[in-house]
Amino acid sequence: MRRCKIIPKPPQEAALTFRRRKAGLKEIEILQKINLADPEDKKHMIRLERHFEHKGHLCMVFENLSINLREVLKKFGRDVGINLRAVRAYAQQMFLGLSLLRKCNILHADLKPDNILVSISLHCQ
């Protein structure tokens, strides 16, 4: 993922990723299903903002999340681990997200700290 600035009013930051067309279309279908199942954005799942094609690649624009869980662990838990309250909060948020995936009959096959994104306020997505 790459961070970018969207210029139209008002300017905002977003995350941008590129996929091959076929794989990207399937990912968009899954993300749209998740977004529809959580219209109030309470289940801590990343939001797909929009998508477009560029030079044969599918580009997906996501809400901007600043850091992944592995980076959080390195930054805040070096040599000692992170606070138990933080572990509980992250676990609760992940279980909410996983319950939404189950409701949508979606299996996440690559769940790891690198794929768990954290917002500036340190909430999992």
Shape: globular
Which architecture does the CATH hierarchy give at level 2? Orthogonal Bundle
Give the CATH topology. Answer: Transferase(Phosphotransferase), domain 1
Estimate percent helicity. 25-40%
Please indicate the percent range of residues in DSSP E strands (runs of 2 or more).
25-35%
Distance between the termini: 14 Å
Largest sheet: number of strands, sense, barrel closure:
4 strands, antiparallel
Strands side by side in the biggest sheet: 1-2-4-3
**CATH superfamily membership:** Transferase(Phosphotransferase) domain 1
Radius of gyration: 15 Å
List the domain count as a whole number: 1
Kindly state the mean pLDDT as a whole number? 82
Reconstruct the topology from this structure.
Elements (H helix, E strand, L loop, with lengths): L1 E5 L5 E9 H17 L10 E7 L2 E7 L3 E2 H8 L7 H20 L13 E2 L7
Antiparallel strand pairs: 1-2, 2-4, 3-4, 5-6
